[in-house]
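User: C-alpha cells for Cyclic nucleotide-binding domain (cNMP-BD) protein, please.
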Amino acid sequence: MLVKGYSSLAQLQQLSIFQDLAIAQLESLIPCSYLKEYQQNEIVMHEGDRIPPQLHGLIRGRLEIKKTADNGKETIVRLIPPGELFAAPAIFGNGIAPATVISQVESQILTIDRQALLQVISQSPEISLGILEVFNQRLQQLHNTVHGLISERAMVRLVKLLQYYSDRDGTHLDEQGDRLNIKLPYYQIARSIGITYEECVRLFKKLKGIVIYQRGGTIIVRDWKKLAAISEQ
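Assistant: Done. Predicted C-alpha cells:
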C-alpha cells in the first residue's frame, strides 16, 4: 500500500454519490479525504479486521470481495468497479470488516473521515440517501446470492451471474457477439456461484454455441434469448 495524500476535486467527483454535489461542498472534503494505492493481488483489508470510521470508495482499478467459510471454502461475493463504495460497517455498523477485500489489479482507493462526511451530509441530506441506496442494493444482491446458492441449479446461477455483470458493466459488440466489458476467469465464476473450477468448465461446455469463453476470462454471449431460455428449463 502506498499513501498518496489528499484527493483532488476530480477524484472526489468520480464517486457516484458525489457527482451532483456543489463544488464548494466537495472542496470542503478535500482536507479530510485520502488516497491509497494498492498493487495487484494486495490485501486491502481482511475479514474480521477493525476498520477506521471512514467512507471507502474505489477510484481506479477493481476490488474483489470474498468471504471464507469455517471449512475454508472461499466465495467471491462481488467485484467492485470504479466509482462504488465498500466496507459499509466503517460508516454504519460495528467497524468490523465483513469480508476480505483484495485489489485484483493496481487500484486507487479514496477514504473520507466519518465526521467530515457527516458535516457535509448535514448540508446535503441527499448524500445519505445515495449511500443508503448503494448499501441497500448490496443487501439485495447478497440476499439473491444466498437464495441462489440454496435453491437454484448451478446453470441458473451461472446465467444470472453473466446477466448481472452485463447489466452492471455493459457489453460491446464484436464480430462474434456481445463481449462483456469485465473479464471473469473460471476460478472467479466458480467461487461466485459456489461450484468447483471443474464444474464451471463443464457448464461452459454445455453453453457451446451460445456463450464463448476465451482464455483469461473474456466472455462473449452470442444469443441472450437462448441463454435466458436455458435458465428457465
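User: Anything notable?

Assistant: The radius of gyration is 19 Å.
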